[in-house]
Amino acid sequence: MTIDTSALGFGVGEHAVYAANPWQSRGRLFAEGSSPTRSDFQRDRDRIVHTTAFRRLKHKTQVFIAADGDHYRTRLTHTIEVAQVARALARALKLDEDLAEGVALVHDFGHTPFGHTGEDALHAVLEPYGGFDHNAQSLRIVTKLERRYAEFDGLNLTWESLEGLVKHNGPLVGPDGQGTRGPVPQPILDYCAIHDLELENHASLEAQVAAIADDIAYNTHDIDDGLRSGYLTFQMLEEVPFLDKLMQEVRDLYPSLEASRFTHEIMRRQITRMVEDVIGVAQTRLRQHRPESADDVRKAGLTFASFSDELAVTDKQIKKLLFTHIYRHPDIMRIRAGAAQIVTDLYHAFMIEPREMQSHYWYDTIQTMPEHVKARHVGDYLAGMTDTYAIAAHRRLFDHTPDLR
């Protein structure tokens, strides 16, 4: 994909006309005065970083349970890497970097302990009460569950940050009024009833670059962690022509390079090629559609920041590689089964005896709540747990806790 280097925003302070403008934000649900030193999007970013939910990410699984080794990605290090890629894309496209970074930093707030395994287990037990969706849970955290401010629950983020959180992967409602990926989670519908996030439209370009940055980061770094763990080998990477070409390029330049440096040279090239591909695609689509505002981007009916057709094929090939050799490896599946048991056991234990949720601020009133409200509170509590806290809680309540090594 060809890039127009003359249009890149490196070192340029001004935003493009299609960028979100922090000085013309649609505002917050609860009105606040402006800051003399920070834009509204900078304030959002700062609020996100200072949350309990952000700190908890350091002990939540990305792919490998934290106990497997100190050098594997956690949900926190993954989030930081996504934010770095998102800022790079935003800078190149002359977008608001603070909004792009904020969406990247908050996008995984709703993840449960033990990654997608924990989410699947929590969804199964909550299915009679509407199920569980990590994106909807992220919204609940920043609009309700974080209790830091005297005048409101949540963080009172701007409309643009909340829109980016909810819609960074595209519209949630189609032209027919139906959910584009199944029913829209009820927490999102409930919030939109009081603060409409326009679920039928795309999100800002800042949110779009945060979404594609997520793909770039985990495609690359799950390979890195897979090689470190031994579940992947360089020979397996040859299954993907894109990766095979990168490896040959590195071998030609450095014939005797040690394995760890060889891995890093592949990974840095992979990130660079993918970032440059997205920039080229976005520039082409921006020239074709010529949006004059952020709202034009939202209503254009397409995603501006995505892979080219060629890299989209590579993206699917990499995901297949990761699923085949890591995510569905028998060792990982055994660990996943144990993690799912921990989450399921804790849910039932807390539903039977809510006081086992030690020091939780509402546990003394939970016995009088309707069953569906009680279940959602237990789900909130479980979703907020780190891997280490969930394991410790299970050991406290049960005679046997699955070994996740």
TrEMBL record:
<dbReference type="InterPro" id="IPR051094">
    <property type="entry name" value="Diverse_Catalytic_Enzymes"/>
</dbReference>
<dbReference type="InterPro" id="IPR006261">
    <property type="entry name" value="dGTPase"/>
</dbReference>
<comment type="similarity">
    <text>Belongs to the dGTPase family. Type 2 subfamily.</text>
</comment>
<dbReference type="InterPro" id="IPR003607">
    <property type="entry name" value="HD/PDEase_dom"/>
</dbReference>
<keyword id="KW-0378">Hydrolase</keyword>
<dbReference type="InterPro" id="IPR026875">
    <property type="entry name" value="PHydrolase_assoc_dom"/>
</dbReference>
<dbReference type="Pfam" id="PF01966">
    <property type="entry name" value="HD"/>
</dbReference>
<protein>
    <recommendedName>
        <fullName>Deoxyguanosinetriphosphate triphosphohydrolase-like protein</fullName>
    </recommendedName>
</protein>
<dbReference type="Pfam" id="PF13286">
    <property type="entry name" value="HD_assoc"/>
</dbReference>
<dbReference type="InterPro" id="IPR006674">
    <property type="entry name" value="HD_domain"/>
</dbReference>
<dbReference type="InterPro" id="IPR023023">
    <property type="entry name" value="dNTPase_2"/>
</dbReference>
<dbReference type="GO" id="GO:0016793">
    <property type="term" value="F:triphosphoric monoester hydrolase activity"/>
</dbReference>
<feature type="domain" description="HD">
    <location>
        <begin position="75"/>
        <end position="219"/>
    </location>
</feature>
